């Protein structure tokens, strides 16, 4: 087993200043303290596309947008029981990111799988924001334990539990891994490059399928299955 | 007669166990993958997952916040009779799914594909899936709850006999590499491969291979069993590990299920179960006894029969 000792662990505020973000490096392990909110396509459409005002004061209260939907249920007393929390894949949200950064002042985007370094350079870097990826995927119980209380939930009736905007008080919420830095580099892309170098050897001896599929050719006159 | 209230209480327990308790066979598989992993990031991911399983059990909270899409595999011995009949059984499973979604809690993932209507209980049109199987002997009812992740890690391709084993390996690598990048397949996982049947049956066989067989189980056909081991080794030699980081843990085990197909084709489907491998099973007897287990024991000689007749004892 490899030693994890060399991975640097950092505790970070959910309203971090620029210098704290600049000191983070790809592959650092991050735990968050403060207030985190969930926002994904439901909230993005409302705010970015339709111009609906934000339901809370951002980024003063929080600059940490989690691409997630908690497994949550309402208790009889009206409070909420948050069981596990895991992220959803972030690449689907790239088209809203620029508008969302402007509207919310977010500095931290947490989610699953990250985005491309092109997206980081285009949308994140100009807004002094970075991307933190969840771990696993599916350290949902660990993340659930980091949620101390549901402070509020917005647009629950309109958007449903999964798409509502959940405002969560968190303590040592994590682990997250720094996926993009303030220069827009991507950890996943760095790893992909290393792995891709060995792929040709792996495919030695295999041959392409007898019939191709769309996506394996750009020639529209080819016969495919 | 199997009492329907016992079906309901058992189904509630299974929904909870599947979401919270990592099955022993998969846990042992992850532990040995963690021991063998040399990549520092991939190793950190596996250690975090091991910690996550403990946290889930200690706190009685779901392992993963995306609790997937609950589905049911139901098997009956030939002599089993359910109080209220099959409609009562289906209704009871739907009720337990809805109630457990709220009580555990699970994430209500199920929405209408077009209108995105969410009943907040994982119930809707054709949801949850309930699949049935039968065995020639017994008066029992087996329930298997599976909370299957829903977005990445599944593909299908029509291959042909001339593609051969090499074609199977190639499509296997294509799938693992495509879904493995950035860890979208939630690897290292149990992989299910469906071969043959037809397009829909091939998907069914492959998904069952991933969800209903335990780590270490081998196909009774010795050459297929050999291929299962070979594919596992191939997957772990990509150079990729958990979350798509450099490493060598992609596959905990590979299970292949076959179905007779059209003479001209060799359909192949690929399915990745996830890092939580959420399955829980129970056998219910007419006297109300319930035995819980984690091995679905779905694939019996009867399920894989190729003869016309099957002797009934």
List keywords for this structure.
heterodimer; A: 225 residues; alpha/beta; fumarase; five-stranded mixed beta barrel; B: 313 residues; alpha+beta; 60s Ribosomal Protein L30, Chain: A; four-stranded mixed beta sheet; globular
What spatial order of strands do you see in the largest sheet of chain A?
A: 2-3-6-7-9
Which blocks of ≥5 consecutive residues of chain A have pLDDT under 50?
none
Q: What kind of oligomer do you see? A: heterodimer
CATH class of chain A: Alpha Beta
Helix content of chain A: 25-40%
Percentage beta strand of chain A:
15-25%
**Biggest interface between chains:** A-B, 61 and 72 residues
Q: Mind telling me which CATH architecture of chain A this is?
A: Alpha-Beta Barrel
* Helix content class of chain B: 25-40%
* Largest sheet composition of chain A: 5 strands, mixed, barrel
CATH level-4 homologous superfamily of chain A: Fe-S hydro-lyase, tartrate dehydratase beta-type, catalytic domain
Q: How does the major sheet of chain B shape up?
A: 5 strands, mixed
Mean pLDDT of chain A: 93
Tell me the overall shape of chain B: globular
Mean pLDDT of chain B: 96
Number of helices in the DSSP assignment of chain A: 8
- The N- and C-terminal alpha carbons of chain A lie at a distance of 44 Å
How far apart are the termini of chain B? 20 Å
Pattern of helices and strands of chain A: EHEHEEEHEHEHEHEHH
Beta fraction of chain B:
15-25%
Structural class of chain B: alpha+beta
